[in-house]
Prior knowledge:
The structure holds two protein chains of two kinds. Chain A is mainly α. Chain A has helices spanning 3-12, 23-47, 57-79, 95-104, 111-121, 123-126. In chain A, helix 1 (3-12) packs across helix 2 (23-47) and helix 2 (23-47) packs antiparallel against helix 3. Chain B has one domain (12-212). Chain B is globular and about 60 Å long. Chain B starts with a helix and ends with a helix.
Amino acid sequence: xxxxxxxxxxxxxxxxxxxxxxxxxxxxxxxxxxxxxxxxxxxxxxxxxxxxxxxxxxxxxxxxxxxxxxxxxxxxxxxxxxxxxxxxxxxxxxxxxxxxxxxxxxxxxxxxxxxxxxxxxxxxxxx
Amino acid sequence: xxxxxxxxxxxxxxxxxxxxxxxxxxxxxxxxxxxxxxxxxxxxxxxxxxxxxxxxxxxxxxxxxxxxxxxxxxxxxxxxxxxxxxxxxxxxxxxxxxxxxxxxxxxxxxxxxxxxxxxxxxxxxxxxxxxxxxxxxxxxxxxxxxxxxxxxxxxxxxxxxxxxxxxxxxxxxxxxxxxxxxxxxxxxxxxxxxxxxxxxxxxxxxxxxxxxxxxxxxxxxxxx
Lengths: 127, 224
């Protein structure tokens, strides 16, 4: 899944907590969200003169992507064979974040997903 | 595809090396941010970000069970990446122990010279490593050049901070922007590399036969 496809998929499944999300889908969206957030925080700080702790465009962005971020996180955990309750690791400072990062990196566990991917990648399907 | 095949792929050392390497890079960012906001109650915990970053470099250099090295196991690139990892840890320890004494007892010129030697060695090792990663053929083009771009961006913003520090009054907005840009590039660069490693690991896992690094003809010529 490409960078653009990943972002489009995450926004299409805005509040869809069912199903699965691939490693690429999750991490490309994570990168996209980080880049936009950084740019908006910069605009807030230097152009709009809003303190980093204040509410600006960065905060609006965070709110806008809160639901799709949660949704894709849950779908990624499920794809890696983990329960959505693993998401609560984010509440543990530093160590919890490291653990959840490792969980989000887990390869897909479900055979049917892997089958589907293999079929899509096979030469006969692309012909 | 059978269950066995899926399990075999999930156990692929090459993709696992990239997953762990990428995750460690991202973990180093988390640890760095926690350190910057003063989260650590004990000073020695300040080594954690560097240790995580260096561990990522070691895994990406050597791979797991000889598979998944981003330098395709070539001696020069692997040596540069491993040496950089070691140097970063030693540099941190040196700064925390010897340098803190030197600052009080030695002339400023000595301290500045030592800092620049440290920096030059780090940059030299990093340049060799990123060029070798780009030429090894493990990471597909154009992603293979991303580490080089990141190193270029980090170096450029660092140079800007040095220039701005010397030439522009501190009350100006420009130094603030440059220093913020430098911080964003450093953090963002590591995040970018971490995400790329993870995505590449996923790609290796999903593409049959991709877990075996292929060398490009150009790099084979240069390595022979």
